Every structure is written in C-alpha cells, then in structure tokens.
C-alpha cells in the first residue's frame, strides 16, 4: 500500500517545515504530492529539487486551465524538471478577471501528454461528491482511456461511499483521499463548496477523524488500495500521532 502526503506550497518556509514533518514519519509516507494553487507564488513543479526522490516519489499537480496544449509549455516543464510523475486536474478558474485561463479539457491534456511521454506516470483526480455516481465513473473511464495510470480522490467521509466507488474503480490504481475536518467552519466549507454529504455520525473533532482514517487505512490494506492524506489546518502532531501507521 502506498501512502501519499499532500504539501501545499504557501511559502518556501512552510514547505520545508511540512516536509520535515513528513520525513519524521519515517517510511510510512512514500509519496509527496504538491497541488498548484494560482494565488501562491510557488509553482508545484518548482519543488522537484527539494524533494528527496530516493525516499519519496514526487507528484506535482498541473491544472489544465493553465496550459494550451499546442504551446508545448507543459512538455517543457516536464523535461526541464525531469519529472517522472504528474497529476493532471481541471483546476478552478480564477476569481474575477485578474488572471487569464485556457479552455483546455483535462481529458484532452491527458491524451496529449501520454502521446508525448509514453512512459510517464500520469495521475488524474476524481470527486465522489461532484456529480452522480454513474456520471463520475464515466468521467473516470474517459480519463483512463486517454492515458491516466492512477487516480487520486477528493476526500471521503463515509466508508460506505468508498466501497461503492471501489467497485467501479476495479483494475485502476486508486488513492483514497483523507482530509480531517475538525471545525464546524471547515465542515460548512466542504458542504457548501464541495457538496460533501457528511454521515449522521460525523463530528468535526480529532477523535472522529482519527478513527475514520484508521478504518480507511485498514480497509485499504485489505482491498489493495492506496491512501492520500490532505491535512488542511490541523495540528499535524496531534492528528498523526494517533494514526496507527505511524505509532511507534
């Protein structure tokens, strides 16, 4: 089972602090993935030299709306930074009119990158909350047919929903997203912004989220899935010291 840890590159100092924490977890984490967020100055791929790739596979995210396929800019980045893995997502358009964006479809981008780099590991995303189950599964299959090797999910909060999607992901390498929600404000954000339907027993506290993570990890180990941690605005020590994978 592979375990991925997401680090958001808000600043160089913040990145170094979180990466040091990842290293302190030992061999439990073997992948570091980095989202590309337009409001920050640091681009995901610029962290290539700061990740010890002998210990951690490095997966930078690329947003389709930032690249025109015909420009070749993405190809140049992959070659310049000697990337072996990329995660291609659609990306949210910028708020207001301060930045321009492209109308590139992520499926078309996956197909073009696969054609250019036959041996590259191409990851794609899926969102169990975005639309109906069948529509999302059809979208996943289109990405797989275009050349995606593996899939990272948006976070789950209900193991029943994981089981349902897992049936449809059979044969596709899958990373189950886990993102602790420990405040009511964060819960409201996920409900409004990402359309998450939390189970009735959900509690925005460390205890519930730790128990859920440990259950998902056990299920993933049994089913042959992988796990993807997205720790947003949490005390890393307080959360991870109770995750079974990292207990001494």
Keyword list:
single chain; 248 residues; alpha/beta; eight-stranded parallel β-barrel
What is the topological layout?
Blueprint: E1 3-6, H1 12-24, E2 31-34, E3 57-63, H2 73-80, E4 85-89, H3 106-116, E5 121-126, H4 133-146, E6 150-155, H5 159-168, E7 173-178, H6 184-193, H7 206-223, E8 226-229, H8 236-240
Parallel strand pairs: 1-2, 1-8, 2-3, 3-4, 4-5, 5-6, 6-7, 7-8
Helix pairs in contact: 3-4
Task: Summarize the structure in words.
The chain has eight helices and eight strands, in the order βαββαβαβαβαβααβα. By secondary structure, the chain is α/β, with parallel strands linked by helices. An eight-stranded parallel beta barrel has the order 1-2-3-4-5-6-7-8. It is globular, with a radius of gyration of 18 Å. 32% of the residues are buried.
Mean pLDDT: 91
Computed over alpha carbons, the radius of gyration is 18 Å
What low-confidence regions span 5 or more consecutive residues with pLDDT below 50?
none
Shape: globular
Number of domains: 1
- Strand residue percentage: 15-25%
Q: How many strands, what sense, and barrel or not for the largest sheet?
A: 8 strands, parallel, barrel
Instruction: Give me the count of strands.
Output: 8
Briefly note the CATH topology name: TIM Barrel
Query: Which strand order do you get reading across the main beta sheet?
Result: 1-2-3-4-5-6-7-8
Short description:
By secondary structure, this protein is an alpha/beta fold.
């Amino acid at each position: 089972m592979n375990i991925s840890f997401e680090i958001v590159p808000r600043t160089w100092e913040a990145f170094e602090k979180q990466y040091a924490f990842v290293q302190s977890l030992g061999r439990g984490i073997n992948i570091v993935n980095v989202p590309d967020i337009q409001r920050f100055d640091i681009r995901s791929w610029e962290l290539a030299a700061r990740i010890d790739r002998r210990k951690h596979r490095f997966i930078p995210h690329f947003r389709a709306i930032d690249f025109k396929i015909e420009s070749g800019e993405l190809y140049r980045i992959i070659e310049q930074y000697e990337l072996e893995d990329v995660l291609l997502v659609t990306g949210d358009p910028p708020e207001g009119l301060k930045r321009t964006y492209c109308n590139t479809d992520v499926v078309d981008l996956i197909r073009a990158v696969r054609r250019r780099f036959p041996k590259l590991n191409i990851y794609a995303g899926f969102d169990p909350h975005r639309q109906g189950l069948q529509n999302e599964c059809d979208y996943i299959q289109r990405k797989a047919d275009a050349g995606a090797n593996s899939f990272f999910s948006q976070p789950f909060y209900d193991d029943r929903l994981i089981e349902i999607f897992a049936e449809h992901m059979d044969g596709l390498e899958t990373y189950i997203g886990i993102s602790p929600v420990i405040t009511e404000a964060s819960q409201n954000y996920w409900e409004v912004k990402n359309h998450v339907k939390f189970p009735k027993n959900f509690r925005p506290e460390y205890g519930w989220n730790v128990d859920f993570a440990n259950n998902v990890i056990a299920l993933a180990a049994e089913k042959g899935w992988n796990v993807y941690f997205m720790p947003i605005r949490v005390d890393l020590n307080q959360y991870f010291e109770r995750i079974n994978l990292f207990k001494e």
